[in-house]
Amino acid sequence: MSVLFTSISENNPVKPGDAQALLDPLGLTIDPAEAKDFHTLLAAVHDCAEDIAALPDYQPFSDQVKYPRENVRRPSEEEQVFGQAWAHKFLIRGNAQGGPLAGKSVSLKDVIAVAGVPQLLGSDIIPSWTPTTDATVVTRLLDAGADIHGTSTCENLCHSTSSYTSAQGTVENPHAKGYSAGGSTSGGAALVAAGIVDITIGGDQGGSIRVPASFCGCVGLKPTHGRVPFTGIASGDSINDHAGPLARTTLEAAMCLDTISGYDGIDDKALGSSKPGSTKFALALQENSNTLEGFRIGVLREGFEHSAVDPLVKSSVLTAAQKFKDLGATVEEISLPEHLQGPALWTIQQRISGAQTLLGQNAGRRALYMTEMEHARLPWTDDGFQRAFPSTKNVIINGLYLAQKFPGLYGKSVNIARHVSDKYEALFEKYDVLVMPTTPVVAPRHGKRELPIDSLKPSMGLTINTAIFNVTGHPAITIPVGLASAKDDNQVMLPVGLQIVGGLWQEEKILRAAHVWETHFDWRKMHCAADMN
């Protein structure tokens, strides 16, 4: 129905001709006989917008009496580790009564809202903005007894799987300086792998938990889409939004997932999730950690045979996959050609929806909208655009082009993605989990900010096995299963990640496979070096 109005305010700024000016870029015109009415209707909707804009926003309550923020600061040079791994340092002490995560130290990717803590998003396009609320995952961690020690650096607006794109500085791989820590949860992966914190909460929209976990040698879990509410976390594309833990062990990741999962009454993506506190993933691992007897594991051929997969990574992951046999599992090679459609499907979805999000045009979900952040970053200015990392500029350019030249393509990509998801689900009727390399290579050398293509090259191809599961929503975990030599130096040994994927809402299976493997084998003793002669 049309907006109801009785009169237009005296100071209404809408002028005759404004309605037509809005349509000019589309090549559309208003019949002169209708122009006066459309001017009146546009002026009425402006008054309606002014009324809503004047109302107070409705943000979730942040209990800063129970959970005060102590000593919020940008870390000094002496406090920084692995280049620029910390975004902000502070301390929020968890529930004094204890809980399942009592004694655990946590960092948060710097896209997760913490009231009173400035958020940088790895960018200098806009000044940092300070949330007034806590993300749902933050409240749940604190209620479970965890202590939060700070926010960790993320890549520039989360648009990279490298670790040199953040405007705050480069994050170094804890295994070798000069090599990528992965992205976009770069700082958190380095902190976890080095033992500085026990757990990091990351965001994954194409591999941003799993890629850095793989490069840094820790566990990274992307749950089923909607398992963990995304409330209070900066979004790129709601279809691809996932939040989850990085930890040093699968058991810690499972303990964290038990804490943060479940519908929160706000994020409609989590409507299908379980009741908060009802999952028992960690307990299941503790009760059944010795064998995979009866487990059926599919080794996905397409995950290994892509031209981007380094032979050392392929060999290391295949060796690790065969070790599941020693644990009682059946291991078989399987094929799903549709797996190779993943990068293209993800690209179309992420570019179109990602551009709309960056331009403040995304809508249609029941969720917590980060209105304070939107006020800080909109409208775009050319000065801000020039400071953006090339990947962000590319999202906007690609998204505008695709929306203009390929009407309906976003919707078609969503439909095809459902087809691919159904294909995977058919496999999961026969196999408990699928395995493949997490990343096609070990951590590469850092890139440099140069012309766009050169700036983007270090990230190209890294998500060939991860992004598809953001598109389909299937749960996936990466665990370290060995060390392989760097491409440019066979004396530098870097972690190799094995990705384990399960059916929708079947986290227990991927956690079990990962936990049993890691409790029986020491990945640090599994070396695979290149012959440089």
From TrEMBL:
Fetch the SUPFAM superfamilies from UniProt: Amidase signature (AS) enzymes
Q: Which intervals hold domain Amidase?
A: 95-511
A Pfam family found in this protein is Amidase
Could you cite one Gene Ontology molecular function of this protein? catalytic activity
Q: Tell me the protein's name.
A: Amidase
